[in-house]
Design goal:
about 110 residues; mainly beta; Leucine-rich repeat, LRR (right-handed beta-alpha superhelix); four-stranded mixed beta sheet; two-stranded parallel sheet; 6 strands; about 5% helix; Leu-rich_rpt; DNA_repair-toleration; LRR_dom_sf; Leucine-rich repeat-containing N-terminal plant-type domain-containing protein
């Protein structure tokens, strides 16, 4: 919900189930989960009219391995990204990103 609130969710092209309390997170538009539906493994909000700053709290999702935010008017703070231990794919092309300072905190495993 933090992502919806801080990134202009009510103006997104698609936001199916994001504010539906009866729907599990794995049924929210753009959220990808493991086969059992226990963990969020990906966020794919490509070209969805997101605005603002990506909430760094999402880096703490322990199985998050993919983030695609390309084609949105966003900023992406790399502060805290070292907590995203499973992250393998990050697409920030065609965004408002002005710096990659902090990305060096990622380590190759």
């Amino acid at each position: 919900i933090e992502m919806y609130n801080t990134m202009g969710g009510r103006f997104w092209k698609k936001s199916d189930n994001w504010l539906n309390p009866g729907r599990p997170v794995c049924e929210w538009y753009g959220i990808i989960c493991d086969d059992d539906g226990d963990y969020v493994t990906g966020i794919n909000m490509k070209d969805n009219d997101l605005e603002g700053t990506f909430p760094s709290a999402l880096f703490s999702l322990e199985k998050l391995n993919s983030i695609n935010l390309s084609g949105n008017s966003i900023d992406f703070p790399f502060d805290g990204i070292e907590a995203a231990k499973a992250l393998e794919f990050l697409d920030l092309t065609h965004t408002d990103l002005t710096s990659i300072e902090g990305i060096k905190s990622l380590s190759e495993t």
